[in-house]
Specification:
269 residues; six-stranded mixed beta sheet; 2 domains
Length: 269
Amino acid sequence: MIEFRNVSKTYPGGTQAVAGFSLTAATGAITVLVGPSGSGKTTLLRMVNRMVEPTSGAVFVEGRDVAQGDAVELRRSIGYVLQEGGLLPHRTVLDNVATVPVLKGTRRREARARAATLLERVGLDPGLGARYPSELSGGQRQRVGVARALAANPAVLLMDEPFGAVDPLVRRELQDQLRRLQQDLGKTVLLVTHDIDEAFRLGDTVAVMRQGGHLAQVGTPAELLANPQDGFVRGFIGADRADRTLTVVDRAGRRLVVDADGRPAGVLR
């Protein structure tokens, strides 16, 4: 579980990134922070591993105030996935994945063996382990980034716009894979995105942020769509978009779901 208790962040010069934010990200679920640029999403994410220190308030992971321990050890205990993977270019794929376990004292051979297993887990051929990040596609690099984040078997996984740099087809595949991994491994995932469709596709709980780091509304995707709290939330989640307004029609003996423009969205079973 990750808990934000009334956290705020004001940078030198007076810019307020987050204001009085409170939220609990449930254990074993995916919680998504979504909002426009300047809404404090990444600032909040980086408070969890103390890459950013709050001006006031506190962040707790598994009931422990993150400010009370060693920051380096904290970061090694939390998986962190960046856009484009954030891989070390001078290290092979296998050594990238094995980095944190080796830093925590695992023997290199054992860490590499687990790294090879994790490459398979995220849908990659272990033979890619001998390559360097520059020799991989964007989607492959992102999968390696996920494998590296999982290498030390963390309870918590932070993901900052993890699929923003890949094409739509690969992005969909990576989203599906993340859902499968989370269901199999039961990690507590906190994910940042600006894409509301991605937030609804991945999130068990979605927190919609507004400019200045204010929480606009939090709930399940169904709750947000059924009852947006105000005009900002309604507009941001696209509650009135044509592709969100679905009806059922009979075509050639099958029941199709179509949007407000009559475009098919799926088959009703």
